[in-house]
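Extended Data, record Phosphoglycerate mutase
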Amino acid sequence: MFKFLKSKLSQFIPKLNRLVIVRHGESDFNIGNRFCGWHDAPLSAIGVKEALTVAVPALLQSKLEFDVVYTSVLSRSRETADMILSNMNCSYVPVKEDWRLSERHYGNLTGERKREVANTYGEDQVMQWRRAYDVAPPPIEETNRYYYTICSNPIFDEVPPGHFPNSESMHMCVERVAPMWQEVRQELLKGSKVLMVVHGTVARALVQLIEGLSNDAIEKINIANCVPRVYEFDLTTGKLIGGGINLGNPDYIKRKVAEVAAIGQ
């Protein structure tokens, strides 16, 4: 009798779990098409609208729920998460901030307009800095207007000595995010429903770590703002089931991904 009841009960124990990754909404720096990185730029009005009209409807329509949310320490990440939770009527869900989920540090390119940098150094060089796996932009210098606001920002107080970057390649960003992903993965496999609201390069790093993409393949991946990407995991084996699924209008997503990929004006 006991074995029979145990067998019946096992039918109702969830064997799958889902992870959702969302890139934050447009920031003030995105408006000017500037390299942002570790500068703490707030969301723009469009970024707020993206959170409310792109992310929230897609998550509600898919009936997704969350037990915990992970963000970076940068305000554009946390603001997007707060709006998502508030408009899904689940502001009670705990939010965990971690510096390791901060955007890739763009070194001395921070604050520069991408088009102006391309006009100076050439589009090929800019694309190398933006997308090449092992190419880091020039290190940030004290003459950069954002140097001191970044270095003295108390949101980075938890960065261990020797780990504060002055520039990062995609590879370096992946190495920073990897231990964080392992922590989140353990939480997922214990059954927690996790939402991660992060940054463009961090989202790409997670995609590579989760899907096992090659370095060449991840260079070609672009992530649109506020489009939820869902992954499904087998709780018994811990393995990923299929690939990531983007929620939302395919035409809208395609257009926004193309905008992210381009250097712009």
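Summary. Confidence is low (pLDDT under 50) at residues 4-10.
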